[in-house]
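User: Design a sequence. Structure:
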């Protein structure tokens, strides 16, 4: 598995930007490995296993996921895993054409909706988490007056901090650890 992959081609961007494929990729990323049947159970929305298999094959065609070693006794099922530890998608790679810009915007909207759903699910389930986890969670927003260069520098620093904690968490004892979603949006804002 490569460390990260930067998506720079429009065909892969469009393939990944399908809402169900993004959900499947996210679920697979969380699990590490899974079959279409496992993912159908996890989605729990009535999506047919055959449709999930189709979308997994589309993700594989673009190198976003790859076959994994079978983990179960049933050798007929295909196991899948992410082909990289992380994906990077920069708007600068797609803004030169109207189609690329539109596809990047559509993908960004789907990503936002899915992240929003994750946070709302946490809010609905918050009472089921321990007081320590309830107290540790954060929901903040800030307004800063920055230049584009300062925003890029700040973003790089925040990414470095998150990466440091991510790497430390991989090396540490798993006891007491949970997967934590960190959603970061930084963008210029004008009054409407």
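Assistant: Done.
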């Amino acid at each position: 598995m490569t460390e990260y992959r930067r998506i720079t081609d429009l065909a892969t961007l469009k393939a990944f930007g399908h809402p169900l494929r993004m959900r499947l990729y996210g679920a697979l990323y969380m699990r590490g490995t899974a079959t279409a049947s496992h993912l159908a159970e996890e989605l729990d929305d009535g999506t047919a296993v055959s449709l999930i298999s189709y979308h997994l094959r589309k993700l594989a065609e673009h190198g976003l996921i790859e076959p994994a070693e079978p983990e179960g006794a049933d050798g007929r099922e295909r196991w899948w895993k992410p082909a990289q530890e992380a994906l990077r998608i920069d708007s600068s790679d797609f803004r030169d054409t109207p189609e690329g810009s539109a596809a990047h915007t559509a993908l960004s909207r789907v990503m936002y909706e899915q992240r929003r759903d994750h946070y709302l699910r946490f809010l609905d389930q918050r009472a089921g988490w321990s007081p320590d986890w309830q107290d540790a969670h954060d929901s903040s927003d800030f307004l800063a007056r920055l230049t584009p260069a300062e925003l890029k520098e700040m973003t790089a620093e925040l990414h470095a901090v998150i990466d440091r904690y991510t790497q430390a968490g991989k090396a540490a004892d798993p006891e007491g650890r949970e997967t934590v979603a960190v959603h970061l949006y930084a963008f210029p804002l004008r009054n409407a």
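The radius of gyration is 18 Å. The first strand starts at residue 2 and ends at 6.
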